[in-house]
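In the current project phase, our protein records have gained a structure token line. A sample record follows, to show the layout:
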Amino acid sequence: MVKWRKLKEKDIRNDPLHRWLTWFDSGSPAEQIKEVIGMDSSIMSAEVKKAFFSQDKDERDLYFRRLMATMDYNSGMNGARSEGLEEGRKEGRDVATKNIARKALTEGLPIEVIKKITGLDLETIEQLAASKV
């Protein structure tokens, strides 16, 4: 830092190291710091983090509580979405199985064979047979 401060020509436009050193140097003019922040996304990110950690304890706690609430909400929504998708898949499988049983009934297969193939209970197969009559 000492050698850099002694440099007469600081090339913040073309040298990323000079931009970082400008940002780190407490003696750099505020306008120049704003300029290097605008020129380099990494420095901009570092500035945002520095500002965050410069907050007082209450503001940081509030931030973390909001962050946790958002994460909890997203987790709950993802869980509900997964449950809904699985329920939909199960309903689709049930409908497909019942369709297979209906076709087997129309082909005249015995109820015991349909039960064995589809895994449906006897009552459900009998209901399907009764609804076809």
Observations:
- The chain has a mean pLDDT of 88.
- The chain has seven helices and no strands.
